[in-house]
Amino acid sequence: MSPIAITIILLLVALVLFGSEKLPVDIVGLILVIGLVVTGILTVNEGVSGFGDNIIITIGGLFVLTGGLIKTGIVDLIGRRLYKISGNNEFLLTALVMSVAAISASVLKNTTTTAMFVPVVLGLANRARVAPSKLMMPLAFGAILGGSCTLIGTSTNLAVSSALQRYNMPPFSMFELTPVGIFTVVFGMIYMLLVGRKMLPNIGGADESLTEQYHIREYVSELLVLRGSTLIGKTLGEANINLELDLNVLGIMRDGENRIAPRPDERIEAGDSLIVEGRLANILNVKGEAGLEIKYDFELNDRALEGDGIELFEVMVMRNSRLVGQNLKTLNFRRTYDLTVLAINRHGETFLEKISGVNLKFGDVLLVQGNRKTIEPFVVERDFLFLEDVSASSMRTAKRPWAIAAFALFLALSLSKIVIGVEVPLAIAVLLGVMLLLATKTVRYAELYSLIDLRLLVLIACMMS
Questions:
Q1: What does the mean pLDDT of the chain come to?
Q2: pLDDT value at position 214?
Q3: pLDDT surpassing 50 at residue 299
Q4: Is residue 235 located within the same domain as residue 220?
Q5: How far, in Å, CA of 345 to CA of 328, rounded?
Q6: Is 108 domain-assigned?
Q7: What is the pLDDT confidence band of residue 147, given thresholds at 50, 70 and 90?
Q8: Is the dihedral of CA 187, 191, 194, 200 positive or negative?
Q9: Do residues 306 and 333 share a domain?
């Protein structure tokens, strides 16, 4: 059998395996490479050559740069701004999602763009009362179209550019594909908005499993209005906390125990305690957004938040726990347990009391901060059921300038040949951006490799071989 026939047969087998989804895509890629080597189509060195290509480093680095944008809350901020502009207008929201996806994919890569915006778009669909499928498919299409605009927009462009060099031809420049790509994006969006949008399935709706899958649990927490906050002097209606911060204000505590109903015309004052309900990420993100701070039982600075061994956990109060029927104040929780409760989730129920005064019930989920070793004895004694380590949900809003600077550095170096006539390889440019993220602790070394989709890298390497 000729080498061409063997290659075609192996490719058809790979396509069937891809379509059946019985095996992970990276495993299928490895099987294809092994088949080509065993049949003599490729030598061993040729079979593994894709793993040593600089494209793998470039794509892996882009995953980390994207992780920096996610860790600092920039992606979540974009989502809130999109809803502020579009409101519940499905047509406008679809257009904005596709536009942002296309622009992001042109510089972030279409795969990473889709992955980082999936939770954001699910949240937008929930708030706008739109079926998730009506926005998820436009997100995917926008990312695919936008990826065609630049060299780094899609793995295919990078692979073709690398192949050109093997045949002694000049590689693509960063924006060589842009003129054609822009036309593709414009006409693709027009089609989707005028025709394709009407053909999208109406799947998802208020499916609770979607929110559970993406960890959207509602917490009630107490926020302190800091001096210098942009909210001081504004009414609740003017502050529009629900839209700006995606938090629902349940009540205001002022001058000790005085409870004020959250009327739209009630003005916010320095020192007010706002009882709010919202997602974990939004509660943890408040200080960087509007001069608010989670109200602790004791003063807690950023160093304490980032100290060695200090993490965020979700724990559930067990049926026979000594906590049942008592509140944090009577338990002297901080001193007794050496843990700090930041928020409480009571499924299907909200409350207007200060967090320290809430009588705990079986099934309450507490968002606590402390050392894992401190929690373990109480888990053993069945006071708590350990649910999850949610430390990664804490946004590093103070690091946003560094996340943006790292990406700007990468883009600037990738354009160096056009600007100053000196070419900096893309792999080196992206690695310098990653080094900046690590040096400033915008991305921590312990989480570095968790940001990289190794399955995709293996698949790309196999396909290049």
A1: 78
A2: 38
A3: no
A4: yes
A5: 14
A6: yes
A7: confident
A8: negative
A9: yes
Whether 66 maps to a domain, the answer reads: no
C-beta separation of 243 from 84 below 8 A: yes
The DSSP secondary-structure symbol of 360 reads P
Residues 102 and 200 in one domain: yes
Angle at 303 between CA 302 and CA 305, to 5 degrees: 60
Question: What is the value of pTM for the model shown?
Answer: 0.62
Q: Closest Cα to residue 341, out of 351, 350, 354, 352? A: 354
CA distance 216 to 53: 39
- Percent composition of the chain: helix, strand, coil (DSSP 3-state, to 5): 55, 10, 30
Same domain, 350 and 226: no
Domains in the chain: how many in total? 5
Same domain (yes/no): 104, 194:
yes
Task: Examine residue 180 and state whether it is found in any structural domain, yes or no.
Answer: yes
273, 335: one domain: no
Write the DSSP string, 185-210.
HHHHHHHIIIIIHHHS----TT-HHH
pLDDT in tens, 433-444: 999 999 998 888
Give tens-digit pLDDT for 83-108: 878 877 888 989 999 998 898 888 77
Name the residue range of residue 173's domain. Answer: 74-209
> pLDDT at position 158, please?
77
* Beta bridge mates, 423: none
